[in-house]
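Ticket #434: bound-state structure for flavin-adenine dinucleotide.
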Amino acid sequence: MEHLVIIGNGITGVTCARHVRKNSDMKITIISGESEHFFSRTALMYVYMGHMKWGNLKPYEDWFWKKNKIELVHAFVTSVDTDNKNVKLENGSTISYDKLVIATGSQTNKFGWPGQELQGVQGLYSMQDVELLEENTKDINHAVIVGGGLIGIELGEMLHTRNIQVTFLVRENFYWGNILPPEEASIVSRHIIEHGMDLKLNTQLKEILPDENGRVREIITDKGEEIPCQLVGLTPGVHPNIDLVKNTKIETGRGVLVNEYLETNIPDVYSAGDCAEIKSSIDGQRNKLEQLWYTGKMQGEVLAQNILGSKIKYDRGIWYNSAKFLDIEYQTYGFVANGSREGEESFYWEHHSGKKCLRIVYTSNKRNVIGFNVFGIRLRHKLCEKWIKEKRSIEYVMENLRDANFDPEFYTHHEEEVISKFNKENSKKNLVLK
Ligand SMILES: Cc1cc2nc3c(=O)[nH]c(=O)nc-3n(C[C@H](O)[C@H](O)[C@H](O)COP(=O)(O)OP(=O)(O)OC[C@H]3O[C@@H](n4cnc5c(N)ncnc54)[C@H](O)[C@@H]3O)c2cc1C
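RESOLUTION: The complex was predicted; output attached.
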């Protein structure tokens, strides 16, 4: 019987194993070092905040794996030998494979800052990071978070619930300004400040200084400002975790290089999820790194089919993402750049509270809608995607905006206000909501 070995029990590895099992009796082993069982990484913050217990993070009961004949090995793999088709574990034992999947996820970026290895300096990625955070935040009163992204804001919220004063150091003009247009980024920035957190924009970390016990005592910014703190949270993004394959025959770039079938350069070796770099088949187009939960899941599904002999290209389809900035929900569908781009226009509406907004991006020539950003209002994912796919015009979308609203009952609706702003800005239009 063929043996499929998967390194990494995150959403990618586990989805792949589940889908292989649905269609095949092949022997499946998942090896993972971080935890015995698969858990929801996206919900890690809720454990620290006391909303959930560790056990609540497990999407499957512990009996699931045995019932589905998926063997779990809780260990780190130390080397991969593709000539002899086996992997070595930290205890020295080896496991042979017929087919191998590398789904080793990401690691926190560290940019070689002086003091980045001091006690009290850490990232937020793994279960062990949350345990370390528990230790590192005992009796502390001030933390500095370096890097403004989706993990940074989660860390800020986590610390805030423990009454720890938070200072963010953000390189851009606004929080997450490298992704969000200035208006949306400014909503997030204001919201952070209103929650009592300190936000230092256009500011970078220069150095982290220790106390006499080797613990962080303060940081120094590139502007020479000294900020006393007992924790430094490093959240300036992540990179593919490819340590394991760096010295093997498996080709790597930024991640493990794979084609659109998620195959590496070595026969029977595949990679997917956060650690994979998908080579572009179009000349001049950049390879893709996709470091999201849902893309890991989709890649895991496609990979399972390819392992079983199909030839299915991975195609993510229309981009989407959602997140939460403290208590403001954010969704994005399609493509919304952080600044204006040639050939594109955008309509932007913001509620007077400064907590809700809607941006719709469309092409200048045909006025086809290509992207949505929405804060504080929920829009139906499937409908927005359909409109983008069907190349609906901005006018059509405006008139039908009500259909897209997905807010709970009794929430205030804003479509009238939105369309009236659109009509004002487009003087010849007199669109009416359907
Ligand atoms: C705090 C946080 C919040 C997030 N929130 C969101 C969100 O809201 N929405 C979203 O889309 N995405 C979110 N993400 C990103 C998302 O969690 C990741 O994209 C996803 O978990 C990646 O899945 P994966 O299976 O590719 O890798 P991982 O989940 O990283 O799993 C890989 C596993 O492989 C193990 N491993 C690595 N090397 C070895 C080795 N040598 N031997 C054995 N095991 C090994 C790792 O320890 C790890 O357990 C968040 C991430 C974090 C850290």
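RESOLUTION NOTES: Residues 7-13, 31-34, 41-42, 44, 76-77, 103-106, 124-125, 151, 154, 241, 244, 273-274, 291-294, 296, 323 surround flavin-adenine dinucleotide (CB under 6 Å).
TICKET STATUS: resolved
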